Amino acid sequence: MSNISSQIDVIETLSTPLDAPTGERTAAPRATPLRRSSDRLSPPPAPAAGKPAVAADAQVSAGLRRGRWIRIGLAAGAVVTAALFIHDRLFVLSANRAVLSPVAISLRAPIAGTLMVPDAEPGRLLPAGTVLGHVRDAMADETRLVGLRARVQALETEAAALAGRLSAAEGEIEVAGTRSGAFQEARLRQLRARLDESRANEAAAMARLREASSAIRRGERLVGSSAIAPAAVDTLTRNQRVAEREVAALQERRRALQAEHDAAAMGIFTSDNSTDRSVSQQTEDRLRLLRAELRAQIAERRGQADIVRGQLAIEQRGFEARHNVPLPAPAQARLMALHAQNGEFVSQGQEIATLLDCGRQMVVAEVTERVFTRLTTGQRAEFRPQSGADAALQGEVVRLLSPINTTGAGADPRHRVEIRMDRLAAETGCEGARSGSVNFLGLP
Predict the structure, then answer these.
(1) Does residue 313 lie within any of the structural domains?
(2) Is the dihedral of CA 233, 235, 236, 242 positive or negative?
(3) Nearest alpha carbon to residue 189 among 257, 252, 254
(4) Do 35 and 73 sit in the same domain of this protein?
(5) Sequence-ordered alpha helix ranges (H) in 116-226
(6) Angle at Cα 176 formed by Cα 175 and Cα 181, nearest 5°?
């Protein structure tokens, strides 16, 4: 009531007209500070006659109208303020205390061993896939690797030995080929000489045959004149027949030599020992067969060596995965802390370093009991940085945590809410923590 009285006094003071000559407020209207509504509806009592009374009455009417509009404005402002207060309290879900920071990633030792991180400096920005270091196990079992390496070495040694034998066989084949060629050439020359001899013998036999035929013709004429006996003609006839047989035999012999010569020219030699190859040719054939066998054996050994090498590579990768395990950054991140030193022995699962994921950020907001009870996981939220220079970021509520300890009896309990922001660009997500406010939007 005291506040209302003071407001009325202010309004009446403002509604008091000013004295035209002096600029000071006149005291004439103070006689009626406040009238009832029924009084305000009835006309004021008539003043005394004259111009000064009419002017005073006009000033009073104007002051009353100004006071009425001022009171209306103050009432409207109070209503709007109350409406906004009720809207904020009942309909708007927000948190004025919120912190945006990248998600922390714990990098742990995949195996037990010695930590090798020579260039790990806190604050360093690591692109995705960057190997921060290794964990080396000096006690890893290498028995399988040693066995595979020995097998590969043995196969390579066998292949090298076979290659040496192949080289020697190639040399022997070359020598045997030279000998075979020389033998063939000598055999061809021999057959050509025998052909020439056969042709000469055949020509001599043909001459004897012609001579025998001429002798028969002469003998037949002489028998008619009784110069020789008929028995002499019979002898001449027998000599002709012998010459004919001799010519036929020599012709057959020549054809046989010609066939043998033609076969020898193609590397086929006919003889009585049931073979068509010379000894040098047979040696060359045996060496060529040995060469083919050696080449097959070399290919087999090398193929086996390739298979064992593949097994060795797989085993080597497995051994490296067990013996020298890399520590890659799962995403673009910033190294915040290193919990073990270079050269230190670490156990499997031990935390080695803490990274901040540049592409994932979380907001931790502090809300009242009223806001907390109206939130649900999956609800969308909007974070606005306190600086105001950056754009608002969108995300969703992922965790509703237990109340924070409050001090003082009857204090309103405060709750924490975790909000996972939508994935950001990696180059802008490592700027560090930022404070701001959160507005909780509708349900997902």
Answers:
(1) no
(2) positive
(3) 257
(4) yes
(5) 143-224
(6) 100
Torsion of CA 434, 436, 440, 444, to 10 degrees: -20
- Domain enclosing residue 404, as ranges: 94-130+331-440
Model's pTM, two decimal places? 0.44
> Are residue 251 and residue 365 in the same domain, yes or no?
no
Q: Do 166 and 296 reside in the same domain of the chain?
A: yes
Judgement on whether residues 206 and 287 belong to the same structural domain of the protein: yes
The 10 Å CB-count burial string (b at 16+, else e) for 323-344 is: bbbebebebbbbbeebebeeee
Q: Give the amino acid at 100.
A: L
Q: Is the per-residue pLDDT at 47 higher than 60? A: no
Q: What would the pLDDT profile of 358-382 be if each residue is shown by its tens digit?
A: 878 888 888 888 888 888 888 888 8
Per-residue pLDDT tens over the stretch 390-429:
678 888 888 888 776 555 555 567 888 888 888 765 555 5
Residue 327: its H or E element:
strand 324-328
CA 395 remoteness from chain centre: 30
Same-domain status, 280 and 194: yes
